[in-house]
Prior knowledge:
Blueprint: E1 7-15, E2 18-23, E3 26-33, H1 37-46, E4 51-56, H2 57-61, H3 67-80, E5 83-87, H4 93-102, E6 107-110, H5 113-116, H6 118-127, E7 131-138, E8 141-144, E9 149-150, H7 156-166, E10 170-175, H8 187-194, E11 200-204, H9 213-219, E12 225-229, H10 231-234, H11 240-249
Amino acid sequence: MSGGRLALWPAIDLMGGRVVRLLHGKREAATFYDEPPAQAAHRFAAEGADGIHVVDLDAAFGTGENRKEIEEILSVSDASGVAVQVGGGLRTAPAVEDFLERASTARAVVGSLPFLDRPAFTHLLRKYRSLVVALDCKGGRPTVRGWSEDAGAGDAASVARSLAELGVSALLVTDVARDGTMTGPNLELLSAVRAVFSGEILASGGMRGEEDLAPVNRALAGGPCGAIFGRALHSGATTVARLRAARDLGRPS
């Protein structure tokens, strides 16, 4: 993924073995979809996704895990060559190491660990090049513990700057207030992070469809970038094929 070309990352969130989308990250505001997770991954890969973003919500909430479904998605990745990154519940160094040893071709998305155990995170960063740090922001400030607490590390830009100095190469930036709403991304937040971070930035939260491609690409100009689409794809508002066609034509719709 190079700068100037927005990578497309469809999201597959898992709960109870099923594909689900939450609103603002709340379990009580869940919409379940009938398409099996592996089938969704295969469809996204066939339509030209650059990567697939997977979140184990049961692991994130501490109510279980979706290991079987994740392994099936990883099998689709291996067969298709489409990248996969997985998050949810990876809050300790042993959990991250266990996942990456089992899924050596995937990336691990970590949110709380860089803030709650910096020495352990630094150790992982030296050992693995496949870490993505999630900046899940409320009011422009990163949160931890499933978006429930302020990270206490400053605003998104100051955190991104410190992570860049630490050697982090990829960030996932989410505006929690827009997550699952399809109301459009927070371009101001994305631009603020890009101003201090030249590595890969994935935009998340509020993505609607083709109309968001060009604005996000402009906000993240100057480095590798991508956008994560969830509800818009699972609800049928758009498809990866349509997004890719619009992106490759260089027009927003």
